[in-house]
Specification:
The protein has 337 residues and is of the alpha+beta class. It has 2 domains: 202 residues, Chloramphenicol Acetyltransferase (2-Layer Sandwich); 82 residues, no CATH class. Strands 1, 2, 4, 7, 10, 11 and 13 form a 7-stranded mixed beta sheet that branches. A 3-stranded antiparallel beta sheet has the order 3-6-5, with no helix packed on it. Strand 10 and strand 11 form a beta hairpin. The protein is globular, with a radius of gyration of 21 Å. The N and C termini lie close together (5 Å). GO terms for molecular function: transferase activity.
């Protein structure tokens, strides 16, 4: 079967959190305004990424919270726009004011071990809200709580929020919430690689950050040279709209055996694009189910299963009937694999 065993939903644990703090760049940074592109302007939401790290002998005598906090400050000296704040300019376009104000950081301890999340952790994670931080809703906000950022309060929050939770086994959990206006998946990965390099003693990122958002701006006046159907307005049918209220999510694991079976079927194709590997028991989206105001999203990422086999894990969120059909079709292809 390709479906991974669900996480234990009965897991209950307590978390002790310190007061949130702002981590500022380790060195003085320029105070300036940086323009965001027309493409950035469309992504007015936030993304939650969570990473589970097992205990490692190399961490003996080291506090992961302290190491990450210091590495984050050093990295922000190079990625200083992340320590700034979003501002709204003419024509409701966003820009970044590089204030050096810092990113939100929360230190926490949980009385749970990584093993209690299962042999191969995968979403949906039990008690996920205990591992992330909720800002109280700002006055006038239409939702009860804000997971790091409110969708209606996007300008007054930090570009990044990073809770680090120590586990009882010596491992830790890093939850990262980033503003999609500022980042996409590739850029946040590059930033986190830089944090990892700093944590290992580097004095500068191996790949220096470059800000050239103006390359993605439309001409003035605009000139249409190609039709991008990705941006077409789609009229949703009533059936489709109602199906989004009845969603199901599952995690599917594809190792070498499953991929070989799929490749033998002419109507399936999976490419596996040398994704960068993170040394985490799990590193990917914290939630699969859509949050208020967001459409459901599906992902795929490198993963090692409980037998140590390298493969791909695909968390998917689909309308319930579509999920049932997808599982049936996948089972007919993979059989006992």
């Amino acid at each position: 079967m390709a479906i991974m065993a669900p996480s234990p939903t009965s897991l209950v644990f307590n978390v002790r959190r310190c007061e949130p703090e702002l981590v500022v760049p380790a060195k003085s940074t320029p105070h300036e305004f940086k323009q965001l592109s027309d493409v950035d302007d469309r992504e007015r939401h936030h993304v939650l990424v969570i990473m589970f790290y097992r205990y490692d002998q190399s961490l003996v005598g080291k506090d992961p919270v302290k190491v990450i906090r210091e590495a984050l400050a050093q990295t922000l000296a190079f990625y200083y726009p992340y320590a700034g704040r979003l501002r709204e300019g003419p024509d409701a376009k966003f820009m970044v004011e590089c204030t050096g104000g810092g990113v939100m950081f929360i230190e926490a301890d949980a009385d749970v071990t990584l093993e209690e999340f299962g042999d191969a952790p995968d979403p949906p994670f039990p008690c996920i809200d205990e591992l992330i931080f909720k800002f109280p809703a700002p006055e006038g906000c239409l939702i009860a709580h804000c997971y790091f950022f409110s969708f209606v309060d996007v300008l007054s929050r930090e570009a990044l929020c990073s809770p680090v939770t120590r586990l009882r086994c010596g491992g830790f959990v890093l939850a990262l919430r980033y503003n999609h206006i500022m980042n996409d998946g590739i850029s946040i990965l590059q930033f986190m690689i830089a944090v990892g390099e700093m944590a290992q003693g580097a004095t500068a990122p191996s790949i220096p950050p470059v800000w050239q958002r103006e390359l993605l701006n439309a001409r003035n006046p605009p000139q249409v040279t190609f039709t991008y159907h990705e941006f077409d307005e789609v009229v949703e049918s009533k059936v489709f709209a109602s199906s989004l209220h009845d969603m199901a999510c599952n995690c599917f694991y594809f190792g070498p055996t499953q991929i070989s079976a799929i490749r033998r079927k002419k109507n399936f194709l999976i490419t596996y694009i040398n994704l960068p590997r993170l040394r985490a028991a799990f590193g990917g989206p914290g939630k699969i189910f859509p949050e208020p105001g967001l459409d459901p999203a599906n992902f795929y990422m490198p993963m090692k299963n409980s037998q140590g086999e390298e493969g791909i894990m695909v968390p998917m969120c689909l309308p319930t009937l579509a999920m049932e059909r997808f599982v049936k079709e996948l089972d007919s292809i993979l059989g006992d694999h």
